[in-house]
Amino acid sequence: MDKKALFVASMPFMEQHNTGGVSIMNRNYQILCTTFKKENVDICVVNSDDKFLGDNLNLPQMVWIEGNIRGIKRTLNEMTGHNYITNSGEKKLKTIILQKNYDLIWLDSPQYGRIAKFIKENVESSVITFAHNVESEYIKIYCKLSWKKPHYYAKIHEIEKNEKDAIMYSDEFICISSRDRSEYEKKFNCKLDTVFPVTLNDTVRNADLKTAGGEYFMFVGSYFKPNEEAVKWIVENVAQCIKQDIYIVGRNMEKMLEGNQTLIPNNVRIVGGVDDLGEYYRRAIAIIMPIFSGSGMKVKTAEAMMYGKPIVATDEALIGYNVDDIEGIYRCNSAEDFTLAMNRIYQNGQNYYKEIRDYYLEFCDTKQLFVNANSLINGLLCNKK
Q: What tens digit of pLDDT does each residue of 82-95 get?
């Protein structure tokens, strides 16, 4: 009899690649599909709306699990440990786990530590938890703690409890970067061994490489707080210091224009979401990444390297990438350093570096990770016998 697995996702991800987190979620699902075969991998997607399933996915093994929505109900759920999943949603997921007798269950967030504990206490399934970030620290970026919102403290406390249970009750707790692993080890006084860094399938066409010159500098990222802060920083500190255009490309980034049109310099163009990101990469002089906050690894860094583009980035944007000796990658943490590097790249006239592309192929291409992941999973399954 074929072995079966369950993939528990923290958001809709099928046929979507519009954020870094979703791209990694798709990759993790594909890891299970290569080990168990697609037809043997069930999916539970935690989401506040059941309409995401669609009619065109043709995946009868995908099930909706009720997730939290904004409002008082969500606050009450969060204060009882149900951070992204409602109480009824958790009961439904537990019923599926008890009925299906899975060989392995992949929890794609440490927010499901309660589920990991339930699995280990009730069934014999192996458990893998994947942490896209150090969740309790990541959420603090969005929750401005204050005495006016005491439920935020309770929320973070419950997230930390879930993280601790996820580490304790998972057969493998996988981090996305060595930094996150170190933070988890320090936070919970534990020892973690496994890191699955950011990887991407190589989708670059030959026509997207080795283009001379370039038309603009480009920032890539969807609309959320660290990226919003980065764009504001570019507008206030860099745009007026260079003559070239700067394109801001990413899902919902056009929201940056709401009420701010007169504040955007003439050489900054807010493009928003696009259908063919490759075309924008091809025409870019270089990719700029002034990211100053966050957790995990930045998927867009690997994407820029996939295209062999020069990169001007902060320490935060380069976390997890060992690129200090690679020509064409500039580590910059001040407006002056960004301006100097961007002017140097423009004057140089080179907007493709084989060494950057080679780094991607060696360290960031998904093919090798699949080999390592399949070996890890098969090892867990063998230990069950």
A: 667 888 899 999 99
Contact by Cβ (8 Å): 294, 226: yes
Tokens 């406390």 — which residue? 157
Q: At 383, which amino acid appears?
A: N
pLDDT at 55: 47
The structure tokens 């390592």 sit at 372
Give the torsion through C-alpha atoms of 372, 373, 378, 383, to 10 deg. 100
Task: Express each pLDDT in 112-162 by its tens digit.
Answer: 999 999 999 999 999 999 999 998 887 776 666 554 555 677 778 888 999
Distance between CA atoms of 304 and 316, rounded to whole angstroms?
A: 15
- Check whether 316 has a pLDDT greater than 50: yes
Please state the rounded mean pLDDT for residues 41-53: 80
- Bridge-based pairing of strands 126-131 and 329-331 is unpaired
Which distant-in-sequence residues (6+ apart) come within 8 Å of 266 by Cβ? none
Point out the least confidently predicted range of 40-54, 166-180, 183-197, 243-257: 40-54
Give the predicted TM-score (pTM) of the model: 0.81
> What pLDDT is recorded for position 83?
67
